[in-house]
Amino acid sequence: MYQAILESGLLTRLLVVLLPLIVIAIPCGLISIHRSVGSMSDISLMTSTFTFVGASFIFIGSFANVTAWQGADRAVTNLKNELSSLSSLAESILDYEPQPVLTDAIGSIVSYVEAVRDGELNASNNDGAVQSASADERTRRTKNAALTESTSESNEIEQAALDIRNSILNIEKADVVNERDLARMLEQVSQFQDARRDRISTRWPLVSDVVMFALLIVTIVAVVVFGLFPVGERRNLKWLQIGGCSLVVSAIWFAVLSTQNLSVSNPAIRIPVDAFLSRYR
Fold first, then answer.
1. What is the domain extent for residue 158?
2. Residues 212 and 199 in one domain
């Protein structure tokens, strides 16, 4: 459920955040309005409760937001490092006059980035496997297969990653570049493999289920408390209180969920990928 929400569209995430708040807050507000004006002791008790619950919500919500932001920033950095390593490799190849084996190498790099964009970075295809714990095992198989030049049993994207190294080995066999540049290309392939391993081993979801469950519980309690908060003589102000608090809660939840978007629908992901493809296609 949690991952399905993260993979949903912007409007869906907004509705998921707003609708439960409306369902909980409005009935509580109506109950509070139709009760008699709260006594000073009631107001004092609810104020202390509201303060404690509100502070707890802000603390856990801020922690979740910071965790999501740091994780997303790390994921974007890992992607840029991977693209940078491939860009260095492509530039090393483009230093030479076009030849079929060199053109094929550039094609394998572009095909890999396109496969990553359409697969691992595609929100509709991303089932969390890219960032799951099993990614470490798949990465190990990919790297070992590349080093031994064997056929990988991994998926299409991992095979595309292997094709990049194989294309450099084909350049070595064709003897079309000098030894120094060939050594640099092989080192750049190794850097690419390390960068890919760092990216696909990124933990996802970025915020753990435990933290999100705690935030959910505190949110429900907070909504009930501010919904039932005793009204004063001006009862219409109750809706202003409910509306303002609901907007704050919605904003924090929406930020936590949206920050964890690691697909190409996120401009921070899409822009460097599109820039790379426009340069080397």
1. 78-204+268-280
2. no
